[in-house]
Queue: 4 jobs
Job 1
Amino acid sequence: MKNPLVSVVILTWNRKDDLIETITELRKSSYASIEVIVVDNGSEDGTPAVIKERFPDVVFVRLEKNTGIAGYNIGMKKARGDYVVLLDSDSFPERNAIERMLKIFESDNKIGAVAFDVHNTVVSGQWSVVSDSRSFDLQKARDTYGYNGAGVGIRKECIEKAGYLFEPYFLYFNEQDHAFRILQAGYKIKFHPDIIAFHKSSMTSRANRSAPYFYTRNLLWLIWRFYPFKYALSTTLLLFFHASLSTLQQRTFIYMKAIMDAVKGFKVVISSRMVINEDIIKGARIPIRWAFTAYI
Amino acid sequence: MKILFIKSTSIQHLALSFEKVRSLPPPTHPLDGCPALLIKEGRGVVIDVLAHPHAVDSLKGFGFINRIIPYNSKGNFSPLHIFREYIRNIRRGKYDMVIVPFNNMSGSGYENVMALAVCTGARQIVTCNRIGDTKVLDIKKALLKVVKGYSCYPLALLMTVILSMIGILIIFILSLRALAKQSLFSATLTPLRLLRRFAPRNDS
């Protein structure tokens, strides 16, 4: 198919300026056939008015409240393209990224997703990496077991088969959950170091307390949903240990609350359990301890 | 002056830590001028970095690093591995200052890195947290931090056992709540159904 439509779905919540920058950068893409869908999770910073005024061609979906990652699902369902690119409102692809992503997809129809190499940058304006698309080497693509939600392309047909994002997560670990289902559906996920997305990460933004809660709860859910029994049991105990240790060391109850809520949701999570094989677990290398040492 | 930087966080945070350490006020170290000045002028400051082998190439971009010491242990700075493997080697360097960057705010969970810093025998240990706040610790304070960190381990182990028991109990209570809604037969089966979903039937 020549010049297939690519739908870019951007989820936003109170990040008007970042969103404007993301859409502006998307306009500079070397690939023209792009549909931009913005799902606004109930922003209160004037996002709807600004987007409608400055970017009238953008498909804008306004939600009344913050639904977390469920907004991506709404955007993906609206997408008309054969391929969907998911972005955060503070991330955007490098100019050649979408064109290159399509080359990867066209090389093998069993490729379900293309994970962008997400470059986290602290200083605004550090995204001048522009290279010639003609020198793009397909051979550098390698299999991977997950993707970063700040930049990924997914085949629409793959979404239909593997399913949409698991909404109870709200945020965090939804990408890994989705990646497991993509792999389980028989598709491959490819990573290419020259398909780049830029993500404006802030050194201070991680100092909030909701992140360790969601990371801990969702990591338990992820494990219970996908891990074989022996791995699920041992990893749960390991997580309980790290949560206990962090509770004592950091003098916070947030990890215990996360565990309690994870247990409360056990039934919902287990009802959709899908066991993955050990190779995928080993390949995914999920950082168990990271969430406990990355915030407080 | 010899400084050892322990790369316990990302490259980006390491860069931030370098900047923060450069701006430390003069009383922090025994020599004249601040590290920034010394590094810039190359007056007697030697900076070594202890890092995982996968970070070696990226670190080569920092021109002012004298020596990159790669450690071969898998995963985190496990006291069981890295201490045995490197502590003698590092001690031989006789560092005046060790810099420990944290990926979080409080430094919790970094007791292994702090322990390594203490073992180097350096007079000063400078910590730099996620947002770049620096603290200068003498050996006593650093050692206290290590002891406090490790003292939580036995209690955490006990909590894990209690949590596991509570977790199992909650799952059964949730299942038994079906008693009010369903028949006794169905309620008895609910926990079995839940556990059956976990059973290792399709693991391979």
Job 2
Amino acid sequence: MRVRNIIFMSLVGIIFLSIIISSLVRGEKEISTIENRSLSIIPTFSLDKFLETDYQSNLEVALTDQIIYGDRVKLLYNQIKNNNLDHIVSLLKRFEEEKLITSSIEESIIEGPEENKSKIYLESNTIHQEMKSERDRIKRIEKENIERLISMGRLPQNSSFEISITPRGSGHYELDETKHLIVRKRTSKDADKLFESKANNYNLIAKNYPDLSYYCYYIESDVDIDFINGVIDHELVNLFFGKLNSSINKTALYLNEPTDYQNYFYKTDHHWDVKGQLKGYEDILWILNDKEFDTLDIETKLIEGATYNGSKSRTISDFKLKDDFSILISPLDDHEVYINGVKSNYGLKKRYSEGKYSKDIGVNHYGIANGGDFGLVEYRFNQPDKGNILVFVESFSNPVNEFIASHYNNAYFVDLRYYDKSINPYFDFGDFVDSKNIDDVMFMGYYFFYANDRFLIND
Amino acid sequence: MVFSSLTFLFIFFPITLIVYFLTSSRKLRNIVLFISSLIFYAWGEPIYVVLMVFTTLNNYYFSLFIQKAKDNDRTKISKIYLVLSLIISLGILGYFKYYDFLIVNLNNLLNINLDIHNLPLPIGISFYTFQSISYTIDVYRGKLKAQNKFIVLGTYVTLFPQLIAGPIVRYSTIEEELENRTETVDMVAQGLRRFILGLGKKVIIANQMGFIADNIFNNSNTSAGTIMIWIALLAYTFQIYYDFSGYSDMAIGIGKMIGFNFLENFNYPYISKSITEFWRRWHISLSSWFRDYVYIPLGGNRHHAIRNILIVWLLTGLWHGANWNYIVWGVYYGLLLLIEKYILKEVLLRIPGIIKYLYTMIFVVIGWALFRIEDLSQLFQILQTMFVYESISLRTVMIEYQDIFYALPYFSLAIIGSTPLVKNSMEYFEKTKRKFNHIIIDLYHISILFIVVIFLVGDTFNPFIYFKF
């Protein structure tokens, strides 16, 4: 018994010691590629932090991050979780399908096959004209115009649809047909207060600086579509635009049908795919139509062999789900780029085009190829006859920054999440537009850009 | 600090054990335990550690005064010392745990506007206060001699294995061991196995069950329907058992490793066939504490038994938390026990075991609903949904509650583990004296340890429910 106990204790001791020693020998790891984040490092002890219990919680997080083979252990754990989920979901889906088959057989015997019930509603317009013929003519023109704008995706169009989805855990679902991972739609209740403060912020800026031109571009995404109940009603963008003053020009990447989402967005990431990026660029030129910009000749380049595991596949830890990865390229005039005031290169599109990129699992190609998130990215195209633009952005703008910038003399892309951390002094709208001779101001982002107080503009 | 944290497992525990076993004298080992226990507590409560030391000092000095008064046959004086000590200990507990509850209710009742403190509840205050006062009462009763070495009493009150979530260890249980314990290789190994089992209960089962319960209870998108409410409550029923009994196992295991033999706190409560039996098997150290320090002094079975039972259960409810649902929960059990004692006693003897089991479990699950849901209107809604059938479609379950599928398979482990099946099997294998069986048992423990590390690293969801008591 004694020998057995000594062996048992020794084994447990060896396990603990080997984990501790190998973690120490390896040294601190800074980045987790799979989680796409910086890892916490062992904190330095200070009495203040200990008394506030920050030291304790930071140490626990750091140990979780720094333990040897932590990445693999996390992957293994998530694999166990996902296996549980997949088995139960497939079991329940099979059960549900059998139930549906049984009930449809019963119904077809009584009523015959049910027809597809998808509907499309067009928004109505009212036009006041005295002359019937004139009214008809205007109506016809307007109808044609609306249809044209709808077909271009520049006006919202409500629709209902049926789509088959499968739960994938952590609040994610998979569209069965195209394997797009989606999250649930946000409600106006979630958004209302946040939209209110953001809209008030923009309205005040526009009121205080009336000489500037203002543009707002809202990128609809899966959080704007109710995939679960099969409804597209543009509730969120309409709510937000309804709160903005008329002095701000506005349009959106309107997703009028589920296929729009599937066309414009990655399967595994919350960002837009190259088609969405291109559409975004075209929309932005359209909203800036008074400037009469010429559209750039942009080429889509598929990066051979690059597979992209976006944020959603990382969240559910399923690295088998992948996207092809492409980038947008256009021969631009000579220009300089400054990141946080330092002359630099933004993004690695050229290297990607040459096939020079990491082949590791979970690499954030979107951020690396198109450029990361920085407080201030400045483009100088040296076209003094053109104006200057200030664009408030988050990561959606990264792939198209250079294209937008090419239409201006100087273009400034400000990400308020990072600006105050990297640029001194803190961002002040008045100072910025005065010092940079700004003509146009644009707000550009998806739901969380607008429903988020971190992007409020100080003045 | 919690046992199921990497900080405890990879830093605190190994260092404490190494330093403990490197010191040779009993006195030094007690000092190591006392200091490490203070660090353990201060890790989570750096400020309130002072409060715990103060409570210990209060009971240390007043017990010495009581002892002195008793030695000089000054009974009245010793009683005054006891009352003073109780006022201070219970006053601290009352101030930190019940003051706000009292003020809120007074404000509502009298339509006044007294300020509340909103002070955070010191971790484990109910446990160490009850341990401390039981010591002082026992000294007053003459069952114990007052301990004149502060380090020894301090080690008893602050002893980290059982400090923050019990079991409530009486001084008399470990009096001898505090100064004359022996640590053997066999005890360390047995303790280690017990600790690993407790850790597994907490991390592998309780956390998963908690995940299911939280996911269903916290989902405000849709009405959960009867089936999901029952799943949530069953998950919570298992969560609270594995959380608390796992913690007790870890405490008993660590205790054994350093030479202490704590009493068992759980004895498979979910196989009980009556509520009375359930409470003989659940949180045994608390039930026996109330029996010895409240119920019997009030007169026990001999005088006003009904009143005494109701008082004890009202206090048991209040001990668990300062909210009306805990009071309702306590009174609920008081009434059930009275009904069993005076009405159902004979009936329960005659009906089949499975019926008795179902009856017990249904009332236990209802009890946990009372315990879990602090908002009384939500509680009534849930109780209604439990018994008035409300449907939910399979699609809604898949959409709204998909994350519970991660954890649902662990229900099977929870059910099996709540019976003595595993324990009996292991005991059987141990008795066979076959080396192969012993290797299997030890590999089983080591596997649990590996799985625990995988779960701890893979998941950060790791709260201990019993901390708030």
Job 3
Amino acid sequence: MSAMKKRRAPCSVCLVAMIALVSALGMTPVQRGARSGQFDSMQAETELQQGIDLTRKGDFRGAIPHLRAAHEQLRDSYAAGFNLALCYVGTQQFSEALTVLQDLRSGSHDTAEVENLLAQSYIGLGRVDETLAAVRRSVELAPKNEKLYLFAADAAMDAGHNDVGLSIVELGLKSLPNSARMLFERAVLLSQLDQFDAARADFHRARELAPGSDIAYIAGAQEALYAGNMAEAAKIAREGIEKGNLHFLLLTIFGEATLGSGAAPGQPDFADAQEALERAVTAHPNFAGAQLSLGKLYLQANRINDAIVHLEGARNLDRRNPAVYANLATAYRRAGNEGKANEAIAALTRLNQEQVENIASTPGERKAGYASRVESKPPKP
Amino acid sequence: MYMPETAGAGCAFLDYDNDGWMDIYLVNSGKCDFLDPSPPLRNALYRNNRDGTFTDVTERAGVSGNAYGMGIAVGDYDGDGWPDLYVTQYPRNILYRNNRDGTFTDVTEKAGVAAPGWSTSAVWFDYNNDGRLDLFVCGFLDYNQSKNLYCGEPNLRAYCMPNAYHGTPNRLFHNNGDGTFTDVGKEAGVALESKAWGVVAADINNDGWLDLFVSNDKIPNWLLVNRKSKFEEIGALAGVAYSGMGVPRSGMGVDAADFDQDGWLDLFLTNVDHEAFSLYRNRHDELFDDVAAGTGIAAATLLLSGWGTKFFDYDNDGDLDLIVCNGHPDTVVAKRIAGVKYAEPMLLFRQSGGKWKNVSAESGSVFAKDFAARGLAIGDFDNDGAADVLVNVNDAAPVLLRNNAARGNHWLGLRLIGSKANKDAIGAQVTYRSGDLQRHRTIVGGGSYASSHDPRLVLGIGARTKIDSLEVKWPQPSGRIERFTSLPVDRYITIAEGEGKWK
């Protein structure tokens, strides 16, 4: 099964798909003591609190040592275990997350959230059957919790299992058929699977269900991108922002679409794109898409060192995104650092070579044709 | 369904009989291991009757091809003043030497340029600055009937994408000067495993050595920079290998020209649907920026699949414009991808002062028609100074577009003949001034897809009525600079290197 796992090459109109991968980042940390017993030591409590604070700020890497220290001393603490697992998932340390989550389950902490994190860990490890089983357990416990479906679907998309993500969202839509966010998520997944007509219909429906919302503007901009109309996408995103929708995805789409429309340094549109992307990065520093877009913008503005900072940030967050390395190579080349540029190109070459090998190992009738475009889909579980 | 069927064929404008009128060569499919057509198919050479009609002279000329045709590169490799033909085919290429009497001789074996396998585009250029034209041949897939794969879905077969197959190396044939060639691809550093459709030879770093921009399908494009006869591949570092997303695209047609008149050659690349085409502006340091989005070219081409393409000044206003012919590789694409068709319209972009405008809709009803277009060549077949366009089409008649758009504007046509420099003056740089207008033009090798172009330059001057000065910088090993004044307009002249005068 894992040999079939693919990260599909992003197409130029799938801007949302490219940048919607937020997975575990959206899950709220469990409060200290929410389900834990008494703390044995002040030190463990301090570590736990520091870990939770860092998790809230999105600094998962920084939180892990604190949470691990707390978890070692407070083995039965739900808060310590759950938050540690959350940070492991957020940093793509899925095996470590799995160990902690299985302990939590066996220790009578079998909550919908734990099952959901389990699903995200399984999909991160390419274990599709166990992913779906965990999702089913999660939604049995909380069938109307929209976020649980969305987190799991995002994780599946991030791992390249778009059809698994689609299955999860369709499960969710059975319980929540009028969920604009779920329809939006399905549209993103369908576009990843090149089912553009169906995706467009879902984007449209999401806009109807939540007019004036951030989702509506994001979906509208995406529809414009399908038509190849960057200028229209930028216009819709701008309108949404001006009406107070400051969702980091909308800000990022606005920045990307404005740059894609040809805004050049010195022009007002370019300055607007810069402001939007800087806001997106400030609002969501762990979102690789915004870091990447801002890095590209600075590159265009000839602010090479600033570009490198954000592109390196994007690399730390999304190490398997070829766009990061393509831009890093250019940035380092322009900074005169040919060694680093060559390193970035080597990484880019490796990622693309993996794709080539995946295609070569695909059975005959699954090999992509010019007219199929989906570079091989995992078989239906 | 066999992969070579997706490719289709190139075409050429050439003056095979040296009468001063552009003739036409059309490449066609033909017999190979998966096809034995009855009646047999063949290529065609049409002689220009100088009255807007042509006569098929293929049989007499002896240039019908003998396999599944792909492309053509025209060049005077033996320096006798008569154009020779290199025809790329699956699975073996042909070199036709011009006998100077309206006939050609197949000299492939003696020359050693058969390049067995599947070749696509080829280009004549002088890679080592010895004054002789060498030959670069694009390698495509390691393919034959026994290796043919089934792609697509079980209930809807599709043509495979090239990433289902291994590539083959490019070849660089060094001209030995005695009618033979030596494949120096490995030593020169160009024998990379490729899936190449297009190539253009152009000096992108102004060092006097011709470089190569090679488009590849589903692997990175190559920018082979010529470091004194040894090539360094810098595509990824230069920013032309991948899309902005960091993934290889389906690179097909290519061209090079200094569209922004900053003295440095820029590049153009066509891709397939949902990839957008790229206009690469030269940053002067072996780095390129893709500026297609800001020009409207990316949006206009997002759903198209481009093949033949060329920069040219279609309205003779002095600014370089751009034409692209399109057509998706797969016949069944409309059933699979919304908004994408097998046959697609051509596009014409007009440039003025660095601003590009899609003028297809106002440039004739032919731009509203759909074609499964492949090769595209530029040439002035009626000698009126307005560059015309020839397009080869899959499973249909070719299209010959007569240019009516340049009427009213003035021009000077220029044929350059090298002596110390290569005979076809590939790499020559021309600067001309007409009142307030100063422009540079460069003769590049090849460009487009599998096609070859009128070797003459047409220098547009708009409504101005005279050319004040003209400077020719001949390519190495000459490097000579010659200046001319008192030039005529609205006619063709010939400048032979070192003669100090025009004819």
Job 4
Amino acid sequence: MLFSIEASSPVPIYAQVVAQVRAAIAAGELRAGDALPSVRQMAAELRVNPNTVAQAYRELEHEGLTYVQRGQGTFVAEVGPERLAGERTQVARALVERMLHEAFRLGLTPAEMRDTVDACLATLPGGGARAATLPADPPASIAIPFT
Amino acid sequence: MDRISLSDPPTPEAAPARGGVPTSAAAPALRTRGLSRRLGGFSLRDVSLTVPVGAVYGLLGPNGAGKTTTLRLVMGLLRPDAGEVEVAGIDGLRHGAEARGKVGYVPERPALPDWMTVGRAMRHHAVFYPGWDAAYAAELARRLGVDPARRVRQLSKGETARLALLLALAHRPPVLLLDEPTDGLDAVARRTLTELLLEYVSDSGASVLVSSHLVHELERFADWVGVMDGGRLVAETPLERFRGSIKRLRVAAGATAEGSLPFHLLSREPRGREEVWAVRGWEPAMADALAARGVELREVVDLDLEDCYVELIRGDARKEAAHAG
């Protein structure tokens, strides 16, 4: 799992780290029992303040997405299918909200938005039809724009 | 500009017994109060800054703003005309040697005796720091690729910077004072130094005051910012709050509410049928207050740290010009 952050984004760095771990869990890239990088490792790799990484890890733990094993590190918690679906919805919502915000700035009406989404879906392989359940084969990565 | 050399560090015999130095509990990592100093045509005026324990504090400012002078005053390399310095709860003016013992300092231009080998420079430096950890110094030398057998004069700029960081870290100080530590280095060397610095902070929980004009670099790892301009500290705040409070606003042209605005207007420029305002002290709730004053707000634009910094410095320059004129 590769993390990256956008330092100049208005989204605070700790929130970006939380969002990426959340998205990776929702996508099935990170599964129960998987270890997250240590705070030290993550801070050096992203060149961010260790306090910021620690803050992100505290929030993930507080949300029940991870747990800390003393002396071992931080691990992904067992997350039930309902919670997982909820996380996916939450990540998706954030993406859609961002898209809508931009679209409304362009002056699109809700009907035009729906038409545009349908038109784009139709160009995807398989016409955008995908299993409603969690994919057995998780997508390689989820990119979340932070700008 | 004065230089620090290896002959400058605190002399061990001048240090009073450790137990005799009063320290205050729960003190910040570093604090100055009303620090002032005239130096030729330049004067540092009333600088009161506080680095909380565990913070990475980025000190920003244009060239000549007083960043290096402030750091040199903290290190006791200059005497202030007025003001106080406190490092880890120790009075830096009364107990300079103890205060400096708490600090790892990377000067703006590390000047090491160039005839020495790196290993000799390390041993020389170790004499002045009771907490010097020779094994750790050797490990740092390996990690940083600094060869103890080479002579200081043979080192490249990047190697000299790495040696300076090694000398600053090897006594495992709780406070780091770094004056443009990556200035003039290439991207790879900067990356190495930054990673090592952040690992040190992870492991030790050390507090850091780092001055830099590389604002993008600081944006990643600083959690506090201080901004200096013209010898004064013009802002000091957690980084997120700094970025949250300085915004550009797109407003419809013709707004007249300037006298009664709830924030500080740094600049105001016409842009077609709009105006772009740079403001300081912004809060989201102010959008309503603007509407009530008949200002049509079209967008609040988030700025990155560099833009915030540039708007603040330019606003400060305008204010100075207005006072002068």
